Amino acid sequence: LQGYASEMDNPSLVHLIPSALQNKKEILFGNLPEIYEFHNRIFLKEIENCIENPELLARCFLKRKEDLQIYEKYCQNKPRSEALWRQCGDSIFFQECQRKLDHKLSLDAYLLKPVQRITKYQLLLKEMLKCSKNSEGTAELEEALATVLDIIKSVNDSMHQIAITGYEGDVSELGKLLMQGSFNVWTDHKKGHNKVKDLARFKPMQRHLFLYTKMLLFCKKREENTDGHEKTASYSFKNSLKMSTVGITENVKGDNKKFEIWYNGREEVYIIQASSVELKNTWISEIRKVLT
């Protein structure tokens, strides 16, 4: 933040800033200042207070559950930040900042830190759990780990969500994103003429499902190569079902990884096959919660 972000306002370096970067500090750095402030003013002190009593550490995470959501915001902005970096990363301005700091690594390595940090927390909490079998604070540690895993899940989910294309409405109006993942899907639109068992012979469609409290979206995943860099996935919207009008059949004969979602009194039937029985059960329990 000092060596790069502040330098963007340094009058003596202004002429080195590429035009593509003008007024785009927020895109490049996201809410990094907010993350820094939170750690500097609050979280670091609270963690340091646990040095003598490590069993209190879990409480820091539980107490700051809401605050840690700032990572989600950071990760959501990351694709925009990376695209901008690919455009301007080799400019003289960044080279000059790096030289002054005497850093071996360029700025993009540091912009990855918050993403890495949130995953590091779960590893640290897991390590602490290993060392604290049935001692004081173990239950709280487990709860803290669950909290961090929950944040990682919502970060991960939201990263997929921002890659949805072609959906006409506003995704933010669909309620909370509960689950997302890829499935084999068979579908039957005919009003009950041909039996569902005939469908099982046809080749399934690959669909990426997004389950919201109000809606289930079916998308098709597309891998796109971004100018020679890592593939970025996008999900083109295919169709949606209002959760208020769907029904669910938990078991499909002949395959314990399949379940059915049907619409409008079985007018449309979707047979959905998960990659494992555990995954199927997780989805079913989430869908049940929404339906009840």
- Side-by-side strand order of the widest sheet: 1-5-4-3-2-8-7-6
If classified by CATH, what would the architecture of the largest domain be?
Answer: Up-down Bundle
Report the radius of gyration as a whole number of Å: 24 Å
The helix-strand sequence is HHHHHHHHEEHEEEEEEH
Determine the CATH topology of the largest domain.
Dbl Homology Domain, Chain A
GO molecular function, one term: guanyl-nucleotide exchange factor activity
Organism: Pterocles gutturalis (yellow-throated sandgrouse)
Protein name: Guanine nucleotide exchange factor DBS
GO biological process, one term: intracellular signal transduction
Walk me through this protein's architecture:
The chain has helices at residues 25-29, 32-48, 57-63, 70-88, 92-101, 107-111, 113-130, 138-161, 196-199, 277-291, and strands at 164-165, 177-188, 205-212, 215-225, 231-242, 246-249, 258-263, 268-273. The model has no long low-confidence stretch (mean pLDDT 89). It has an eight-stranded mixed beta sheet with strand order 1-5-4-3-2-8-7-6. The termini are far apart. The chain is flat and about 70 Å long. It is built from ten helices and eight strands. With 292 residues, it is α+β, with helices and mostly antiparallel strands. The protein folds into two domains: 7-162, Dbl Homology Domain, Chain A (Up-down Bundle), CATH 1.20.900.10; 165-291, Pleckstrin-homology domain (PH domain)/Phosphotyrosine-binding domain (PTB) (PH-domain like), CATH 2.30.29. Helix content is 42%, strand content 21%.
